[in-house]
């Protein structure tokens, strides 16, 4: 209808701003990026951006949480695509594969997280947000290892929490080497499969 203003989806606009921030983070990191830079990248005015985010830190926290939500959604999609109910090993494999920068989408996510974590090293408030996802991920991985033990697929002498942290560390290391092109995606996946093979050998 003529004269009726277009209704703005506020959550959609916040996500569009977060995606503009990701593009900047991938291109040049976050330290030099101002709210004005992000507004320009998103195609809106600085005043419009500040209507959604009052500070750069608030915008960063939202962008990181949104990134996590997208990753969780992709992991669920991968697991639902399996022909049979996934085993603990399947769950771990598909989750870690999604965390690795094996395609453009996951590569972008990892570059954004690295830029965010570098900034968080010097900011206590941001550091708290950066750390909060690790305990949950470790607990999730440890639960899968315990399920493997209960199913007789993992040796009962394995310490589930330690194995979970080792898997996270392996994933982080492989992520770094993939981004630096020290190893290929096939090599990274082979190392991951080898680790899970050793873990899931009772």
Describe this structure in words.
The protein is mainly α. The protein has a domain at 64-199: Orthogonal Bundle (Tetracycline Repressor, domain 2). The protein has 9 helices and no strands. The radius of gyration is 20 Å and the shape is elongated. The N and C termini lie far apart (68 Å). The mean pLDDT is 88.
What would the keywords be for this entry?
202 residues; mainly alpha; Tetracycline Repressor, domain 2; 9 helices; 74% helix
What's the gist of this structure?
With 202 residues, the protein is mainly alpha-helical.
CA distance, first residue to last residue: 68 Å
Q: What is the CATH homology-level superfamily of the domain at 64-199?
A: Tetracycline Repressor, domain 2
What does the main sheet amount to? none
Helix content: over 70%
CATH class call of the domain at 64-199: Mainly Alpha
Instruction: Report the mean per-residue pLDDT as an integer.
Output: 88
Beta strands, count? 0
Oligomer: single chain
Alpha plus pi helix count? 9
What is the CATH topology classification name of the domain at 64-199?
A: Tetracycline Repressor, domain 2
What is the rounded Rg? 20 Å
Percent of residues in beta strands: under 5%
Shape: elongated
Secondary-structure arrangement, i.e. CATH architecture of the domain at 64-199: Orthogonal Bundle
Please mark out the parts with pLDDT under 50 across 5 or more consecutive residues, or reply none.
none
- Supply the helix-strand structural class: mainly alpha
Element-by-element helix/strand order: HHHHHHHHH
């Amino acid at each position: 209808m003529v004269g009726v203003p277009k209704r703005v989806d506020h959550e959609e606009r916040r996500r569009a701003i977060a995606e503009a921030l990701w593009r900047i983070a991938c291109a040049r990191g976050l330290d030099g990026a101002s709210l004005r830079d992000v507004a320009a990248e998103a195609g809106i005015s600085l005043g419009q951006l500040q209507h959604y985010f009052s500070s750069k830190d608030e915008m960063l926290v939202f962008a990181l949480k949104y990134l996590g939500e997208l990753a969780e959604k992709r992991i669920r999609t991968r697991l639902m695509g399996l022909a049979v109910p996934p085993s603990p090993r399947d769950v771990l494999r598909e989750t870690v594969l999604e965390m690795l920068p094996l395609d453009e989408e996951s590569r972008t996510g990892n570059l954004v997280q690295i830029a965010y974590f570098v900034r968080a090293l010097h900011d206590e408030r941001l550091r708290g947000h950066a750390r909060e996802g690790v305990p949950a991920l470790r607990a999730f991985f440890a639960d899968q290892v315990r399920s493997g033990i209960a199913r007789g697929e993992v040796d009962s002498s394995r310490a589930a929490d330690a194995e979970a942290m080792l898997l996270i560390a392996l994933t982080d290391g492989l992520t770094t080497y993939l981004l630096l092109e020290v190893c290929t995606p096939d090599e990274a996946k082979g190392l991951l499969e080898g680790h899970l093979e050793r873990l899931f050998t009772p």
